[in-house]
Amino acid sequence: MTAEYFLDTNVVAYAASARSEDAAKTAIARRLLLADSVGTSAQVLQEFFVVATRKFQPPLSIAAAELYLDALERLPVAPLTTGLVHLAIRIQERYQLSYWDAAILAAAKELAATVVYSEDLNDGQAYDGVTVINPFRPGATLPA
Questions:
Q1: Which residues form the PIN domain (predicted)?
Q2: Fold of domain 5-133
């Protein structure tokens, strides 16, 4: 199970957003979800569910959020393992990141991804062979 590109929670959440003010980001996020060689993690699925059912305005119903999860489960999904937790801890220590950001990077490494699409991490920063790209930045490189 591998993926060249890894999607962080914010990208997945924008793909499901119905807010008109998010329209441009929603279009980009949906394009990323349809790209070849895209993956994510169990952590992202969990975070997406919480964001979609509690923070979206209006929130998604549990049933609607589960439909999105069903679609996301077709992607390569890095499972939460003890090995991933230990890798995240090493990344956290090395780069002085929050554990949760380090866990995203660890999951990307588990899938052999070379790019993480996220607006939360430092755009352009490379972490142990994984480069973060903010897909919503004008001129950002996106997969074909």
A1: 5-120
A2: Rossmann fold (3.40.50)
